[in-house]
Design goal:
Shape: globular
Order of helices and strands: HHHHHHHHHHHHHHHHH
Number of strands: 0
Number of helices: 17
Distance between the termini: 21 Å
Strand content: under 5%
Largest sheet: none
Structural class: mainly alpha
Radius of gyration: 21 Å
Length: 422
C-alpha cells in the first residue's frame, strides 16, 4: 500500500483544460440554482401572495450570506485548499436548492436562500485562486471567458428551460430537480482533481498575504467598487427581468423564458469572444493596462446606454436594449476577474477575489431591495433602470482613476515565511 501511495504522489498533476471546463460548469450550475427564484417569481408571487417588496427581500437574502462569506471562502482556499472548498460549497448549495421546492412559506424561503448564498460563496475565490496559480497572463482572457460563459449560460438555461418547465410542472418540482442534478458535478470534480488537491496540500513557501495588506491597497477598493458598479445593473436584470417582461411588457411565462434565454445567450457569446480577443490583443503586444481597461470601460458605457434605452424606449426599443445589456455584460465579465488576478498575483488571488467579490456583490443586496421599493412606490420600472444606468457610469471612474497600472503588486517579504516541509 505504501508503494502505491508513493507512486500516486509522484504522478504529474497538470492543470489542464478539463479543470477549467469543470470550473465553468460549476459556475453554470451556480447561476442556474441562484436564478431559479427570479424565474419562479411570477408564479410564487401569486401562489404565496408576495408583494414586490417581499420578492425583493427574497432575491436579496441570498447575498446576506454570500457577501460576507466571500472572505471566509478566500481564507478556506488557503486553509483546506480550493479543490475541497469548492466541493463542500457546491454540496451545500445543491441541497439548499432542492429543499426550496419543499418550502411552505416566506420564512423557510428566506432561510434556504441564506444557506444557498453561503454555499455559492466559494465559487469565484476558488476559481480565481486556481486560474491565477496555474495559468499565464496571456491565457487569463479565455479562462475567465469560459467562467463568464458558465455565468451567462446559467441564467440562459435557468430562464429558458426552467421557465418552460415551471409553466408545465409548477415551480416546486423544478427546484427539486435542479438541486439534485447539481450534485452530480461532484463526481467528475473529485475524480479529475484528486491528485491536484493532494499536491496543493504540500506546504507552500510563498504564503498568501493577509487581508490587512489587501485592504490597504487602493487598487483593491477600486476593483471592489468597480465590481459593485458592474454587478448592480447585472443583478437588477437577472433578478427582475422575468417579472418585468411578464408584468410590465405583457409577455407570457413561456415567451419570457424564450426571450430571457436569448438575452443570456448573447451574453455568453459576448463573454467568450471578448476573452479570446483580449488574449489575442495581449499576444500582439498590447499592454495589460490598455487591454483590460479599454474593454471594461467600454462595457460600463454600453451598460448605461442599454439601461437608458429600457427607461425611455417603447417595447421594441426596450427589448433591443436588453440584448445590448447582454453584450455589455459579456465585455465586463472576463476582465472583472482577470484584473484582480493580475494585481494580486498567484499568492493573493484567492483572498483578493474574495474581498473584491464581497464588495461587488453588495450590489446583490442593494439592487433587488431598491428596485422592489421603487416599483412599489412608482408602479413601474422606469426609475429603477435610471438608477442602474447611473451606477454603471460610476464604475468608469473606479476602473480608470482608482486603479493605475494593472500589474502584479509586491507583497511584503515578511508574509512569505511559511516553511516548506520535505
Amino acid at each position: 500500500m505504501a508503494a502505491i501511495d508513493i507512486k500516486a504522489a509522484a504522478r504529474p498533476v497538470p492543470f489542464g483544460g478539463g479543470v477549467v471546463v469543470l470550473l465553468a460548469l460549476a459556475i453554470f450550475i451556480n447561476y442556474v440554482d441562484r436564478g431559479n427564484l427570479a424565474t419562479a417569481a411570477p408564479l410564487m408571487k401569486d401562489e404565496l401572495h408576495l408583494s414586490a417588496s417581499r420578492i425583493g427581500l427574497l432575491l436579496s437574502a441570498f447575498f446576506w450570506t454570500y457577501v460576507p462569506a466571500q472572505i471566509l471562502a478566500g481564507w478556506l482556499c488557503e486553509k483546506i485548499n480550493p479543490y475541497r472548498t469548492y466541493a463542500l460549497g457546491l454540496a451545500l448549495w445543491s441541497v439548499s436548492t432542492a429543499l426550496t421546492g419543499l418550502a411552505g412559506g416566506f420564512g423557510m424561503l428566506i432561510l434556504l436562500r441564506l444557506l444557498l448564498g453561503l454555499g455559492e460563496s466559494v465559487a469565484f475565490p476558488c476559481s480565481s485562486k486556481l486560474i491565477a496559480q496555474h495559468l499565464p497572463q496571456h491565457r487569463l482572457g479565455v479562462a475567465n471567458g469560459m467562467i463568464a460563459l458558465g455565468l451567462s449560460l446559467g441564467p440562459a438555461f435557468g430562464t429558458f428551460a426552467g421557465g418552460l418547465l415551471m409553466a408545465r410542472l409548477g415551480w416546486r418540482p423544478v427546484f427539486l430537480l435542479f438541486g439534485l442534478v447539481s450534485l452530480l458535478w461532484l463526481w467528475p470534480w473529485l475524480a479529475v482533481t484528486r491528485y491536484l488537491s493532494r499536491a496543493d496540500d504540500a506546504p507552500k513557501i510563498d504564503a498568501a498575504p493577509p487581508f490587512s495588506q489587501i485592504l490597504a491597497r487602493r487598487e483593491a477598493w477600486g476593483a471592489g467598487l468597480g465590481h459593485f458598479c458592474n454587478n448592480y445593473a447585472f443583478y437588477f436584470v437577472i433578478s427582475w427581468l422575468p417579472l418585468y417582461l411578464v408584468k410590465t411588457r405583457g409577455f407570457t411565462v413561456a415567451q419570457m423564458a424564450e426571450l430571457g434565454g436569448l438575452i443570456y445567450l448573447v451574453y455568453a457569446a459576448s463573454s467568450i469572444v471578448t476573452g479570446w480577443l483580449s488574449d489575442r490583443w495581449l499576444a500582439a503586444g498590447g499592454s495589460v493596462t490598455l487591454v483590460r481597461k479599454s474593454i471594461i470601460i467600454a462595457g460600463h458605457v454600453l451598460t448605461a446606454t442599454a439601461m437608458l434605452g429600457c427607461m425611455l424606449g417603447n417595447a421594441p426599443v426596450a427589448v433591443a436594449s436588453l440584448f445590448l445589456a447582454g453584450i455589455s455584460f459579456g465585455f465586463n465579465s472576463p476582465c472583472l476577474y482577470a484584473i484582480g488576478q493580475t494585481l494580486a498575483g498567484p499568492r493573493g488571488a484567492g483572498k483578493w477575489i474574495g474581498f473584491q467579490n464581497c464588495i461587488g456583490n453588495v450590489a446583490g443586496i442593494v439592487a433587488p431591495i431598491v428596485t422592489g421599493a421603487v416599483v412599489d412606490r412608482t408602479g413601474e420600472f422606469t426609475w429603477a433602470f435610471a438608477v442602474a444606468g447611473g451606477v454603471a457610469l460610476t464604475g468608469v471612474l473606479c476602473w480608470s482613476v482608482m486603479i493605475g497600472k494593472i500589474a502584479p503588486l509586491t507583497w511584503p517579504e515578511s508574509f512569505t515565511s511559511r516553511t516548506a516541509v520535505v
